[in-house]
Amino acid sequence: MANDNAESFLEQVIRNGAAAEDPLQSPEKLLPPIDHQEVWAAGVTYFRSRAARMEESKSSGGGNFYDRVYTAERPELFFKATPNRVVGHGQKVAIRKDATWSVPEPELALLVNPVGKIIGYTVGNDMSSRDIEGENPLYLPQAKVYSRSCALGPGILISDRPLAATTKIQLAIKRGGECVFSGATDLSQLKRNPQQLVDYLYRENAFPHGTFLLTGTGIVPPDSFTLTHGDEIRISIDGVGTLVNSVG
Q1: How far, in Å, CA of 62 to CA of 58, rounded?
Q2: When comparing pLDDT for 216 and 30, which is higher?
Q3: pLDDT-above-90 percentage for the chain
Q4: Cβ pair 161, 189 in contact under 8 A
Q5: The pTM is what?
Q6: How many domains does the chain have?
Q7: Residue 238: pLDDT over 70
Q8: Which whole-number Å values give the CA distances from 74 to 42, 57, 136, 146, 213, in the listed order?
Q9: CATH number of the domain encompassing residue 191
Q10: Rounded to an integer, what distance in angstroms lies between the CA atom of residue 92 and that of residue 76?
């Protein structure tokens, strides 16, 4: 997904914490801001996410699992994507053909260096097949990991300072030019400290190129909603940027 210029730029950011010039300034040349990094994700970090996951898993009797994760000291962490599964701003995310209930999950994404320090932020979309995950918690990898299941962008805010708790995350989904869902939350609703999530991820694990960590979602469309081809997904995070993707 990345070219040589993008790779050298991001590697410089991870190594030095900043770069003098971004080679991808033209909107038509935007690529997902990822090179060799893996993308991981945290789940059940917002109360709204806990409630939604319990609802979707009623049929499998797994609701209690998510309640326990929300209150436990150890967070839920799972592998999300390799670079080739990630799309950037203006590109198409995918919904699984064998899923009947698909939603976007707007999330703050952390850029973490090899020693576990948060050095930047971007906007993330953790696409999810809720019916597959709800059928059985062990199906989580199939619900979460597939081609074009993750979007990052449009760029990276380089900063080692925590974002304010008042930082707002907004989601809007358009269909045929009409808004069919919108929602908002802020980082004050995030139960777990981002650095705590990173510390757990880096336990007994090595990331020589650094990694991206999605921090969970606090915006969940109603159970009656599912994405369809052609939908436009717009995710905005104050001070970080706006990520726009269509479903294709």
Answers
A1: 6
A2: 216
A3: 73
A4: no
A5: 0.86
A6: 1
A7: yes
A8: 11, 21, 21, 26, 16
A9: 3.90.850.10
A10: 27
